[in-house]
Amino acid sequence: MAGAVDLAAVKARSEAAARAAEAPAPTATNAVVEVSEATFQAEVLDRSFQVPVLIDLWADWCQPCKQLSPVLERLAKESNGAWVLAKIDVDANPRISQALQVQSIPTVYAVLGGQLVPGFQGALPEAQIREFIDAVLEAAGQAGLNGLAAAEEEEVPTLPQQIPDDPRFDAAEEALAEGNFDLAEQRFRTILDEEPGNADAALALRQVGLLRRAMAAPADALQRAAADPQNVDAALVAADLEFLDRREDAALQRLLALVARSGGDDRERVRARLVEYFDLLGPEDPRVGPARREMARALF
User: Fold this and answer.
1) Which residues of the chain have pLDDT under 70?
2) Which of 44, 65, 110, 208 does the annotation list as catalytic?
């Protein structure tokens, strides 16, 4: 529910941060750890309140894993504790794989302050891996995850016992749940009219727009886009469906490729949709920085 806070989740995050503050700081010698279901809480979630944790999901039979894992291990050790690599054998830890909804391996995630951030699949070139890690570290710095010293210096804020819901958001979300996009949009806009700086309402309006477009998409939208890659209208519809289906990487790459080869009004439409996706993902998502830079290179 927008505008509301899950106090149980906040309490759990505070407890994890406290445990992280008491744990030894990561170094080059312990920058790579084998993680099991029993150690996932301590080695991944708790540790992510000290430094970013990258999860490498792999298996012995996976050939691309044998290409990717050594690169990740070397980069983790070179970081001298700036981030930690958590290696998880999906065959030995099926419940972790199921919980993360892993569809293929190798798959890499980042965890920042207890929050899971999608990464990438497959054995990428080292330059792209470094770019992803740089974006993760940048996001970690913005979030104040600067290692053990920072965790010790910062006090966990006192939380109010009760945080009231915002009935305006409740009403707007009720309309959205009923599929009444017009009414939901009207109610979110009313909040913005009253509070022009309300970031939650502005984000909600973008979400409504995305849902509205996706609901109007033809059943064969992805096939149409594949059949005519130069068709900007088809590409925008396909990207929306991919983004809504949590295939954000595919949506971003589709539009980044398109913005590089389009011009005029079409290029502006693609640029605007990319900016919308950046806003929906949020500045802490490590994919946003590299995608913004790629878009800028295409535009200028």
Assistant:
1) 1-29, 143-165, 300
2) 65
65: annotated active-site residue: yes
pTM over 0.90: no
Question: 32-34 and 84-89: which strand pairing?
Answer: parallel
The set of residues, in sequence order, having a beta carbon less than 8 Å from that of 68 and lying 6+ positions away, is 56, 58, 106, 108, 122, 123, 124, 129
Domain boundaries, the chain: 7-153, 167-299
pLDDT score, position 29: 64
User: Is the CATH code 3.40.50 the one for domain 167-299?
Assistant: no
Indicate if 25 belongs to the active site.
no
Phi-psi region of 201 (alpha: psi -120 to 50; beta: other; left: phi over 0): alpha
The two three-digit tokens of residue 169, written as one number: 């958001």
Which one of the listed residues 62, 75, 139, 221 is annotated catalytic? 62
- Give the separation between CA 50 and CA 286, rounded to whole angstroms: 17
Tokens of 187: 């109610």
Q: Output the CA–CA distances (angstroms, integers) from residue 166 to 3, 11, 122, 183, 212, in the order listed.
A: 6, 21, 42, 17, 24
Could you count the other beta carbons within 10 Å of the beta carbon of residue 129? Answer: 19
DSSP 160: P
Q: Contact 34/64 with Cβ under 8 angstroms?
A: no
Q: Note the CATH number of domain 7-153.
A: 3.40.30.10
* Residues 162-206: tens digit of each pLDDT: 334 678 888 888 888 888 889 989 999 999 888 888 888 888 888
- What is the residue type of 168? R
pLDDT of residue 13: 45
